Amino acid sequence: MGFEGYVLNNPALIIAGIVVGSAGTLLTQLMARAMNRPLTNILFKPITGEAQAGGVGVAGTLKEVSALDAASMLRYARKVIIVPGYGMAVGQAQHKVKEMSVLLEEAGVEVKFAIHPVAGRMPGHMNVLLAEAGVSYDKIFDLEEINGEFSQTDVALVIGANDVVNPAARTEKSSPLYGMPILNADHAHNVIVIKRGKSAGYSGIENALFYADTTRMLYGSAQQVVNEVTKHIKEMSS
User: Fold this and answer.
1) Which helix (H) or strand (E) holds 30?
2) pTM, full prediction
């Protein structure tokens, strides 16, 4: 845009191009910092499925759960931490997630939201979606603020997030995620993962969290699944 403005001798286009370029650079730097990676690594060595070649496989099996059972786990928990990700954005499920969280709170459940700096497509993506849905700001916490609470949490509900909750980032030196700070969802007593399918995340590697004994998978579009879970919670609370 800036170059086009230069060619056309249009100062407005030049200024707009500079602003857009600067904003993009700043966002890229913020994401690189959140992922604990050099900027050159982000720009020139993208994480892809090929990056995992030769990596250690994941032990265990995927265990599915029904919407009814997931609703029961959430409704009768004392504390729930919701971890939104890109899947929530794609499914446009933020309003349903807000509705579900309100129902849980009315039933006496403590509900918090945990946000990873690079969840979604840019820093702050999840914060914007939750704010749009009307989730109170004081219920939204970043990684540093909430990571210590997962071990005292009955259920961590992961909605469309993958790499930002992958324990391989802590332990697997051969993983392209190694060294990236993650949300400690695997420390919760139980984990429910809402996911569209069984494919890997952006990094292209399997998520050990999904195979853990305490994790249950709930497949489907985030909006459809959360809506179904919410209906069951309503029935249990009536």
Assistant:
1) helix 11-34
2) 0.78
